[in-house]
Amino acid sequence: MNEIKNFGYLDNLELSEYISFPIYIFFILLISYWIQQKNIKKYPIYKFYTLGVFVKLIGAIVFCLVYIYVYKGGDTISYFESARALTNLFLEKPLDFFKVMSEGPSVENYFLFNGKTTGYPWAYMFYDQKTFFVIKLLVPFMLLSFKGYMLTTILFSWASFAGIWRLYIVFSNHYLKYYKQLAVAILFLPSVVFWGSGILKDTITLSASCWYIYIFYKLFIIREKPIKNFLLLIIIVFVILSIKPYILYTLLPGSIVWIFYEKILNIKNILIRYLIIPVGLLSSLLIGFFILTSIGGFDINKLLYEASEKQSDLKQSYYSGNSFDIGTYEPTIAGAMGVSPAAITAGLYRPFLWESKNVVMLLSGIENFIYLLISVFIIMKFKFRKLIKIISGNPLLLFCIIYSVFFSLIVGLSTANFGALVRFRIAYLPEFVSFLLITYYLMRENKSS
Question: What pLDDT is recorded for position 318?
Fold first, then answer.
């Protein structure tokens, strides 16, 4: 019997996958259409449900084909091969499987696998708690797809759509008049559809951050089903902390402002009202820092040191133009704040068109150029005072801009590669683009009235 080996790439898909993936898509769309028809009379936004799922599935298929035939490998294949080994262990030795699942990575557990019947997971993924958590999540999808790469990706992508859709529900509840525009901003952004549909950490964190916003909205804003939503929030926070703890740190400041928004508005003194918001932001940062350092293992000094090292390294000549430089800075909070404008700009708008070195980056550059144009147009077209008034008068918009700015700052500081940048950005891009669109329409309404 031939050994099961991992290579980090796939030369081609099995013929069975090419035959079966249209069948999977048909049944997924059939289920989606049933969900749409069940809800559309009461909720008009469901007219986009099946189309949203379809676009998501197309994104998954394109993602697979690009990584197989263009990139010829990558972390997505390594995730798949590692999850295949864990799935094989479940099918062959269930007790050993549950031992690995419960105890986590160790040398002893690594050698519960074998080269003949299970194959070995990639060591660099197996021994990393965060990547191993992703591998564990993939096992049910592997079983349902008969361990096929494209089928696993399709099912994984479909499951992640649930989070994206719930973010769309939150925005539509606030701005139902613009639900068509919001569908574009949340469901159909090309970079989000592509990078948020593959077997990657980013697909999970995108969906998890959307779930967080939805559950947070249900629990604290409209106060619906507190026990159920509190338990769901704990689960989502656990998922985020298990993969990318800093995402929770970027979510907390806007969340706290959102919670206390109504109380802030009730303050009659305008000066005190506007002073409360920065104080609330600072308090939330301190609370978030305490939570992540005590629970999530977040180390801001380590993050800043690694980010500074990356920024220094990218200046070396062996890079082929796929990296960017926000400037040299000391790995301290003061040093990071000195380059924060460049970091935020990178997180929101780079790569620029002229920085795109391949087709994928060019498409991202075009997308970013559109966002930059909209941003500049809003600033130039409308008075700054009215802009602030619109944003401060809409708690969801306030949450979105705080979340986007904090996240883009961390991404800009800690990422030196455009390929990683466009992936990391998708966790806040729907919120940022929704912020731009809704702000524009509200400003236009305010100007005409």
Answer: 44
